[in-house]
Inverse folding.
C-alpha cells in the first residue's frame, strides 16, 4: 500500500517536473528542473528493479547532461535564442507530434509479449556468457553488435562537435583557487578508483563501462572547470587515441571472433570474460573522454582560441 | 534486533527532519549566502543520520564502509562547492542580505 503510494507520488513528481521544465520561460530554472527530473527518473528505475539503468540515468541522464545543458545555456547568454518563444502554430504542431509519439510508444508498450519475454533464455545462457550479471551479458555478449554501434555513435558525436567549433579550454586558475585545487586533488583519484570499481563489478553486479565512464567524465568536467583543459590541446594526439580506443578495440575483437568462432562478437566460451573485460576497459576510457569532450563543446584549442569562441566571461579573476 | 530497528527508525526520522529544515531554509531564506549556509549544513547532517540508520540495517561490514565513504565524499563535495558558489557570487558583487535593508 505505502509502496503504491510512493510510486504514485514519484510518477506525479516526474510528470510535474517534466512539464515545468518544458513550460518555464526561465531557461535556467527549466534546466534545474530537468536535472531534478533525471534524479527522480533514477529513483523510478530503482523501483522498476533496474539498478543498472538507474546508475546510468543518475550519472549520464541527470548529472552529465545537466552540466552539458548548463554550459550550453552559459554560451547562449545574451543571444536572442536564450529567450523562449512559447506560442504559435509551431508549438501546437510539436505538441500534437508529442501526443502521436506518446500514442505510438503506449501502443508498443501495451503490445509487448507477456511478462518474462526473453528472460528465461537470457538467464539460461548466462553460464556460457563469461559474466554473471545478465545486463552485462546482454550488452557485451548476446547483443554485442548493438553496443559496438553505440560506441561508434559516441565517437561520431565527438567528431561532429569537433568539426563545429574550437572550444575555449581556460577555466579557473588553480593557483588562485586553492579550494578548487583541493577538491580536485581529493575527488579526481576517488572518481578514477570508483570508475574502475564499477567496471570490475559490472561482471556480476550493477555497473559496467557506461556507468564507470560517466564517473570518469564527471572527473573530466571537474578538471576542465579547474583549467586543466589547456593540457588537452597540447596532447591532442593522445586524446584522439583515447577517444577512438573503445571502438578500435571493440571492432578488433569483433573482427577477431568472426575469424575464430565464425560469429561477429561471438567470443570463445572459455575466454569470454577476458574479452569482455578488455572491451569494457577500452570503452570505459573512450566513454569518459567522449562525454567530457562533449561538455567541452568543441575541439580543444588552448587559450589562443579564447578570442574566437567559448566563454571568456569566466576568465576574469579577483 | 527490534531495538536496533527502532534506533534505525528514529535516526531516519531525525535525518528526515534535518532535510525538511534544510529545504524549508532553501525556499524561505532571503539570499544566496543564507541558503547555502543552511542547505550545506542541514543536508549533511540529514544525510549522515540517514546513512547511519541504513548502516544499522546493513548486511555486511563492507556495506557499512561504503555508506561511510558516501558520507565523507558528500561532505568534501558540499563543503567545497558551497565555498566555490559563495566566492563566485561575492566576486560578482552579490551583496549579503542585511536586516536594515528590508
Amino acid at each position: 500500500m505505502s509502496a503504491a503510494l510512493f510510486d504514485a507520488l514519484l510518477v506525479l513528481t516526474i510528470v510535474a517536473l517534466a512539464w515545468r521544465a518544458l513550460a518555464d520561460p526561465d531557461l535556467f530554472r527549466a534546466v534545474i528542473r530537468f536535472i531534478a527530473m533525471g534524479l527522480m527518473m533514477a529513483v523510478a528505475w530503482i523501483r522498476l528493479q533496474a539498478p543498472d539503468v538507474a546508475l546510468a540515468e543518475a550519472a549520464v541522464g541527470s548529472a552529465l547532461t545537466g552540466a552539458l545543458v548548463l554550459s550550453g545555456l552559459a554560451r547562449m547568454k545574451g543571444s536572442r535564442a536564450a529567450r523562449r518563444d512559447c506560442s504559435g502554430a509551431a508549438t501546437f504542431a510539436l505538441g500534437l507530434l508529442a501526443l502521436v509519439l506518446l500514442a505510438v510508444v503506449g501502443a508498443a508498450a501495451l503490445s509487448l509479449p507477456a511478462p518474462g519475454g526473453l528472460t528465461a533464455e537470457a538467464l539460461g545462457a548466462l553460464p556460457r556468457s563469461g559474466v554473471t550479471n545478465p545486463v552485462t551479458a546482454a550488452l557485451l555478449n548476446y547483443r554485442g553488435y548493438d553496443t559496438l554501434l553505440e560506441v561508434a555513435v559516441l565517437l561520431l558525436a565527438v567528431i561532429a562537435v569537433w568539426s563545429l567549433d574550437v572550444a575555449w579550454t581556460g577555466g579557473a586558475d588553480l593557483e588562485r583557487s586553492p579550494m578548487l585545487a583541493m577538491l580536485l586533488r581529493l575527488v579526481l583519484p576517488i572518481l578514477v578508483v570508483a570508475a574502475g570499481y564499477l567496471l570490475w563489478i559490472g561482471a556480476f553486479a550493477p555497473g559496467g563501462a557506461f556507468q564507470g565512464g560517466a564517473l570518469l567524465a564527471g572527473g573530466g568536467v571537474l578538471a576542465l572547470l579547474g583549467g586543466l583543459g589547456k593540457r588537452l590541446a597540447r596532447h591532442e594526439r593522445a586524446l584522439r587515441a583515447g577517444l577512438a580506443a573503445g571502438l578500435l578495440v571493440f571492432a578488433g575483437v569483433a573482427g577477431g571472433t568472426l575469424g575464430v568462432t565464425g560469429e561477429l562478437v561471438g567470443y570463445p566460451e572459455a575466454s569470454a570474460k577476458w574479452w569482455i573485460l578488455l572491451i569494457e576497459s577500452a570503452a570505459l576510457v573512450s566513454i569518459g573522454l567522449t562525454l567530457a569532450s562533449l561538455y567541452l563543446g568543441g575541439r580543444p584549442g588552448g587559450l589562443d582560441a579564447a578570442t574566437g569562441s567559448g566563454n571568456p566571461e569566466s576568465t576574469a579573476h579577483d | 534486533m527490534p531495538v536496533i530497528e527502532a534506533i534505525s527508525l528514529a535516526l531516519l526520522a531525525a535525518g528526515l527532519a534535518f532535510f525538511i529544515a534544510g529545504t524549508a531554509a532553501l525556499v524561505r531564506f532571503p539570499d544566496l549566502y543564507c541558503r547555502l549556509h543552511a542547505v550545506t549544513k542541514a543536508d549533511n547532517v540529514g544525510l549522515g543520520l540517514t546513512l547511519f540508520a541504513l548502516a544499522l540495517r546493513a548486511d555486511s561490514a563492507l556495506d557499512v564502509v561504503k555508506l561511510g565513504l558516501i558520507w565523507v565524499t558528500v561532505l568534501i563535495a558540499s563543503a567545497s562547492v558551497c565555498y566555490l558558489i559563495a566566492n563566485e557570487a561575492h566576486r560578482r558583487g552579490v551583496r549579503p542580505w542585511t536586516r536594515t535593508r528590508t
